Amino acid sequence: MNRLPGLVSNIKWGVWYDSGRAVLGAPPEAERMACLLHFAEAFGVPVEHTLQEAAGAALRAVGRGSRRTGGERAVPLVVWRSERFQRWYATLRSAGCRLLDARLEWYEQAAAPAGDPAWLLTVMVAPGDGAVPSVHRLLSAQGQGMLM
């Protein structure tokens, strides 16, 4: 290549493409995009060709957003909004526990527009009694949710 095309973006994309949090923005003439475009299509990631279109797609995905603090902010919005997560989180909070952190391990968009996505989330929870925080894995897939 005759110029530096910003390949660092490929690394960032590789971290986020399957998170449910990504929009791929690249002009049609961008070089070496085949792999990124392939995974965008495979994971249902919006692809836009201008900065304005990419920003618009990101804002549409966020919609009205959701006010969150602390470890809540680490939960992707699409998971945060799911009924299964909110039911688990309500139980956690009613026990006096706090969500310290979360990491999305796996995500798959819902097959139908009104359906729930499938996801696997690893969370760190601080018990309400001051005990040592613990790690839990939450899975929501095929219409079922469970704590592992």
Short description:
The chain is of the alpha+beta class. The protein is 31% helix and 24% strand. The protein has 2 domains: 8-62, no CATH class; 70-147.
Overview of the structural elements:
The chain has helices spanning 8-16, 34-42, 51-62, 77-80, 83-94; strands at 24-25, 47-48, 98-108, 118-126, 134-141, 144-147. The chain is of the alpha+beta class. The chain has two domains: 8-62, no CATH class; 70-147. The protein has a four-stranded antiparallel sheet, with helices on one face. Strands 1-2 form a two-stranded parallel ribbon. The longest helix is centred in the middle third of the chain and has 12 residues, at 51-62. The chain is elongated and about 60 Å long. The model has no long low-confidence stretch (mean pLDDT 85).
Task: List the topology elements.
Elements: H1 8-16, E1 24-25, H2 34-42, E2 47-48, H3 51-62, H4 77-80, H5 83-94, E3 98-108, E4 118-126, E5 134-141, E6 144-147
Parallel strand pairs: 1-2
Antiparallel strand pairs: 3-4, 4-5, 5-6
Q: Percent of residues in beta strands?
A: 15-25%
Radius of gyration: 18 Å
Given as residue ranges, the uncertain stretches (5+ residues, pLDDT < 50) are none
Sketch the topology as an H/E string, one letter per element: HEHEHHHEEEE
**Number of strand segments:** 6
Q: Sheet bearing the most strands, described?
A: 4 strands, antiparallel
Given the helix and strand composition, which structural class is it? alpha+beta
Distance between the termini: 48 Å
Report the principal-axis shape: elongated
**What is the subunit arrangement here?**
single chain
Taking strands numbered 1, 2, ... along the chain, how are they ordered across the largest sheet? 3-4-5-6
What is the number of helices? 5
Mean model confidence by pLDDT: 85
How many domains, in number, for the residues?
2
Helix share, percent: 25-40%
